[in-house]
Design a protein that fits this description.
Elements (H helix, E strand, L loop, with lengths): L5 E4 L2 E4 L2 E3 L3 E3 L15 H13 L4 E7 H4 L8 H17 L2 E8 L22 H17 L8 E6 L12 H18 L4 E5 L12 H4 L6 E3 L22 H10 L5 E3 L11 H18 L42 H14 L7 E2 L4 E3 L3 H4 L28 H20 L4 E2 L12 E4 L17 H10 L3 E5 L10 H4 L1 E6 L4 E6 L11 E5 L10 E5 L3 E5 L5 E8 L2 E6 L3 H6 L12 H10 L6 E3 L4 E7 L3 E8 L5 E7 L5 E6 L2 E5 L5 E6 L4 E7 L1
Parallel strand pairs: 4-5, 5-6, 7-8, 9-10, 12-13, 12-14, 14-15, 15-22
Antiparallel strand pairs: 1-2, 2-3, 11-24, 16-19, 17-18, 17-20, 20-21, 21-22, 23-26, 24-25, 25-30, 26-29, 27-28, 27-30
Helix pairs in contact: 1-3, 4-5, 7-8, 8-9, 11-15
Length: about 675
């Protein structure tokens, strides 16, 4: 079919009225590398298009070098546009959508491809640089207005621009995005927009999703767990590492836009190619389950050997073998996985479907989401003769954000291992539509505004639980919950250091029997790892610690349920290398509490290492499974609601599965996945 203009309404792209799932990769040619504009080889480019199409691509992300298109301020290179016209022609010839990224910029290793006339000016802040970038974006918009070969404009790759990364503020990022998006929309209103951010979400950078959401149509994540070992202290192929894409999709998506997984993977110069392929495979299925609207891993091909002596590959050996193919267009194992997943997607219809709303809300604090310096929602009103100034808005919050992302990553994984779909709505958004509220420390803390909920939030929690909701909260030495006694049946008394932590269940909770013992390690020198000591006020003690103090307290409040943990278990797991390998039991706490609260997930498996989530529509949908463990398994899936029939969709088509009541059983490969089509 001829390429048609893409839009994005709801959770997925649409083309000619049908849902469309982009799949492909980021293109950098093997032989010319990043010098391809000046070493132009149209025949080699067409051979790449042919190979990409054969690999199952329907979309390719490409770099548009700022200096090549604009060698002097406001003076555009016609040869560069003629080259881009070739991309457009080949896109039509091979039915491959283009996803161009402007203002390159930073690309491959630590290389930044600057404009020669910048003269030290800040691209996100200098008025003249902003004018020139706005004009540059407008030039593309005018030339390629409504061009159907373009899936979406990417404002730039991995901002802030690397040369000014540590000098860019929230205000600069917001203003830059508004200007560039405005120029594109003014002259090309039909195309959708995104900003190709890297780890701005988990790093709480200025280009984080909440700062962009009003200007773009979808968001992007680059889940490189191997480069964020402070949050993923595990092998690449680990249960925690393979949740990176899903967690970042949930964290970014909680801002209110669909999320595409732009870049992921690893280099065969660092990791075994079959292990990389396994990582990619489970990432694709897990990302689909999390609701991703597309998959464009890094990158299409390895670099050719002659590039090894040239910048940037000379200084970045890991970048030489990141490809889905070898430099001479032979499939690597990860290329075969992408082809198989593309064939699978071809048998799926996302028309009328949406990712199911989660059973659990892992709330993101308003202070984390808001721009620095914004005083809205702070309870101030009218003029003030004595103005309020925030000291903390000027603090470096990197350490606090690390605490937040470590703990919420643990909570996210625990929820998924417990069979719960976990969403990450913002504190001021609709979290009440989920029957379970997760508030792990530091959400319950008080010292650093960035990582805890506002004081009035606890009034909302009381109302929510009283009306039938369930809340789980963990605390540490830095905790503050106003008027908590009625809600939790306990109050904060003091805190104490801890090192060897033991939780002994004295009362059954769900399927956790009395006498069950769990053990954790804490750093006694870190108060964020100290427990709070609790005074009982009507709650039931579920577990005690190594000194006999209440460690878990349950309370029936109104029509709902509350569970308070005196220890920051999520932080302990975050700091434990390979914490989720083997028989780690903490997810059982989440599962048992959700069962006590009467929460039935849409789908649930009998193996905590196998997640499942639903994509749902009117009378039909999919259950998407991802196996995060390094062994094949037989898994039983249970649906909450009655189903009429089910079938497993594979790259070769669909095959019926036997349904016994609301359950079925299937085989999953190690780090594999499955999509089950169902009708009700």
């Amino acid at each position: 079919m001829p390429l048609a203009l893409a839009s994005i309404t709801g959770p997925y792209f649409k083309i000619a009225g049908r849902a469309f799932m982009p799949i492909g990769a980021h293109w950098v040619p093997a032989r010319a590398g990043l010098q391809w504009p000046t070493e132009w080889d149209e025949a080699d480019l067409e051979a790449d298009f042919a190979k990409m199409r054969e690999l199952g691509f329907n979309t390719v992300r490409i770099d548009l070098f700022w200096a090549w298109f604009e060698p002097r301020p406001g003076d555009y290179n016609l040869e560069a546009f003629r080259q881009f016209d070739v991309f457009v022609r080949l896109a039509h010839a091979y039915d491959l959508y283009l996803h161009p990224t402007l203002f390159i910029g930073g690309e491959v290793g630590e290389a930044f491809w600057d404009v020669p006339w910048r003269q030290g000016r800040h691209p996100h802040a200098d008025a003249e640089m902003l004018r020139l970038q706005t004009d540059h974006a407008a030039e593309f918009a005018r030339r390629y207005r409504a061009e159907p070969a373009i899936l979406a404009w990417d404002l730039t790759d991995e901002p802030p621009f690397w040369i000014v990364g540590d000098q860019t503020t929230d205000a600069m990022a917001i203003n830059w995005t508004r200007l560039i998006a405005g120029a594109l929309r003014r002259h090309d209103p039909a195309h959708v927009l995104c900003v190709g951010t890297n780890v701005e979400d988990i790093a709480h950078g200025p280009f984080r999703p909440d700062n962009l959401v009003d200007e773009v149509d979808f968001l992007s994540v680059h889940p490189y767990s191997i480069y964020t070992l402070d949050r993923f202290p595990d092998p690449m192929l680990s249960e925690r590492g393979t949740y990176a894409a899903a967690y970042q999709t949930a964290l970014s998506g909680g801002a209110g836009r669909p999320v595409m997984i732009h870049e992921f993977g690893a280099s065969s110069a660092q990791y075994n190619p079959e292990r990389i392929a396994a990582f990619d495979r489970v990432t694709l299925y897990s990302g689909l389950a999390a609701g991703s609207c597309g998959f464009l891993p890094w990158c299409y091909t390895d670099a050719a050997p002659q590039q090894f002596t040239r910048t940037p590959y000379r200084r970045a050996p890991h970048e030489t073998q990141f490809g889905l193919t070898t430099w001479d267009r032979q499939d690597r194992p990860r290329g075969r996985e992408l082809r198989d997943f593309s064939k699978l997607l071809a048998h799926l219809s996302f028309d009328g479907l949406t990712p199911a709303v989660g059973e659990a809300a892992l709330v993101v604090p308003y202070e984390w989401a808001k721009p620095h310096g914004d005083f809205a929602r702070l309870g101030l009103s009218g003029a003030s003769a004595i103005p309020y100034t925030s000291v903390q808005d000027r603090f470096d919050m990197g350490e606090a954000n690390l605490w937040f992302t470590r703990a919420t990553l643990s909570a996210y994984i625990l929820g998924r291992r417990a069979g719960l779909k976990v969403d990450m709505p913002r504190e001021t958004m609709d979290w009440r539509s989920r029957p379970l509220l997760l508030l792990p420390a530091p959400l319950t803390s008080t010292e650093r505004n960035l990582v805890h909920v506002h004081t009035p939030f606890w009034d909302d929690v009381r109302e929510y639980v009283g009306a039938g909701g369930a809340v789980y909260a963990s605390v540490c030495a830095d905790a503050a919950i106003p008027n908590m006694t009625d809600l939790f049946g306990a109050e904060l008394s003091d805190h104490v250091h801890a090192d060897a932590v033991t939780l002994t269940f004295v009362t059954p909770l769900g399927d956790i029997a009395a006498g069950t013992v769990w053990r954790y390690r804490a750093d006694p020198a870190d108060p964020r790892q100290w427990p709070a000591t609790l005074s009982l006020a009507g709650g039931d003690v579920i577990a005690v610690d190594q000194d006999g103090r209440p460690a878990l307290v349950y309370r029936r409040f109104g029509a709902g349920h509350a569970l308070l943990c005196a220890y920051p278990l999520e932080t302990y797991l975050a700091l434990t290398p390979s914490a989720f390998e083997g028989e780690e039991p903490t997810h059982r706490l989440y599962r048992a509490f959700s069962e006590v609260a009467g929460i039935a997930p849409l789908f649930r498996t009998d193996d905590p290492s196998v997640e499942v989530a639903g994509l749902i529509g009117a009378g039909r949908g999919y259950a998407v499974l991802a196996n995060h463990q390094g062994r094949a398994c037989t898994v039983t899936v249970t649906a909450r609601d009655a189903l009429r029939e089910i079938a497993q969709v594979t790259p070769g088509g669909a095959r019926p599965l036997a349904l016994s009541g609301k359950t079925w059983t299937l085989e999953l490969d190690a780090h594999g996945g499955a999509v089950i089509a169902w009708t009700a």
